[in-house]
Structure formats: structure tokens, C-alpha cells
Amino acid sequence: MYPATVTGDRLCLRELTSEDLPVLTRLYGDPRVTRYLRFDSLDADEAAAKYEERRRTAFDAPRTRYEMAVTTLGGPAMIGTVGMTLEPPHHLSGWLNELVLVPEVWSRGYGSEALRLMIGLGFERLGLHRIWGLRRHDHPVTHGTITEAGMSQEGRMRDWVRTGGRWHDVVTYSVLRHEWDTRCRSVTSARR
């Protein structure tokens, strides 16, 4: 599916564009942002190469990667990215593989909303059965962000990622389609 767009209460997920490259370069070069990612800070050329690779995958057939720009409803400027990779063999499972936001919008609940929008895309438009994600075990706030988005903690994988010259454990989370449907029904009922 291209192009994909998902709109929420305060945010919109849209396809990456060339106008997003300066923000991506800033995000990927900022050690505060990359501290808990699966890669160390990138220079401008490395960030541009990562952008080009992600844009290229949007046109794969079948599409197995969704790397979306996060924007506020008030404007098209990107404030972050969120990504999901569909997994073989049947592409009925998705891996939420990245959520990064510019520091100026941290602690506003945008991370949970961006994850909910991506999860909604996976279940409601892509027909997935299971969506999972992970966080570095030592990241201080992402547990709340992920569980607020509707995911449940599953377990811990030891020494799964190496950044900053050290190995780090990650904690895994998931949500199943029937759990998502139940959650959406209860939220809709509560709004009435």
C-alpha cells in the first residue's frame, strides 16, 4: 500500500519525503535521541543513506516495511519517525522497529499516539495478526509509552543489541488482533 497515511487525535503518520531529510539528519546525529536506538549516532552522509534505503522500501512489491514520518495535525513538518516491518513467512506479524521524536516534543504523549496509529495501520488496514516491539531494558520512559499504546510486556532478550561499544538487553512487548479489537471497542464505548 502506497502511499499510506494515518490520522489520529493530534498526530498524522505519512510517507517520508525529501523535505524530511534535515530532521532525520538531526535526529540520527543527536546522541540524546540515538542513545537507546539499535545504532549509534550517524553523520549527515549516513543519515542520507538510511533515508534513501527507507524511501526505496516503500515501493517494494509486496511492501514489507512502513517507515512513516510523524507530524502534528497543525502542520506537515516532521517531528519524528515510526516504523514497522512485516515478517515472513506470511507477513501476518509486524515488528515495530523504531520510534524517534525530536526532543522538543518529548513527554507530551506523542510516542504512545504514534505507536497506536502504527498498530492501527497494521491491524485495520494490513490485516496483521500480531504486532510486537522492543525497548532497551535501561530506557527510563518507554515502558509506559509502549503499554499506553496497548501492548503487553512479554520477556527479555539478553545482549540483543550492541551500541556505544556495549551489549544491551531488550524487553519485548506484543499485542494480538483480538486484544486490539477489544481495546478499541472499550475506548469507543467509553467515549459515548
Key terms for this structure?
192 residues; globular
Can you lay out the helices and strands and say which pair or pack?
Layout: E1 6-7, E2 11-15, H1 21-29, H2 31-34, H3 44-57, E3 65-72, E4 78-87, E5 93-101, H4 110-125, E6 130-136, H5 142-148, E7 152-163, E8 166-176, H6 177-191
Parallel strand pairs: 5-6
Antiparallel strand pairs: 1-2, 2-3, 3-4, 4-5, 6-8, 7-8
Helix pairs in contact: 1-3
Query: Approximately what portion of the residues adopt beta-strand conformation?
Result: 25-35%
Q: Which term fits the overall shape?
A: globular
Give the count of helical stretches: 6
Rounded to an integer in angstroms, the radius of gyration calculated over CA atoms is 16 Å
Structural class: alpha+beta
- Helicity range: 25-40%
Q: What can be said about the biggest beta sheet?
A: 8 strands, mixed
What is the CA-CA span between the terminal residues?
Answer: 32 Å
Strand order of the largest sheet: 1-2-3-4-5-6-8-7
Point out poorly predicted stretches: 188-192
Number of strands: 8
Overall mean pLDDT stands at 89
Order of helices and strands: EEHHHEEEHEHEEH
Structure explained in plain terms:
With 192 residues, the protein is an alpha+beta fold. It is 34% helix and 33% strand. It has six helices and eight strands; from the N terminus they run ββαααβββαβαββα. An eight-stranded mixed beta sheet has the order 1-2-3-4-5-6-8-7, sandwiched between helices. Helix 1 packs across helix 3. The longest helix is centred in the middle third of the chain and has 16 residues.
Briefly say what this structure is:
The protein is of the alpha+beta class and 192 residues long. The chain is built from six helices and eight strands; from the N terminus they run ββαααβββαβαββα. The longest helix is centred in the middle third of the chain and has 16 residues, at 110-125.
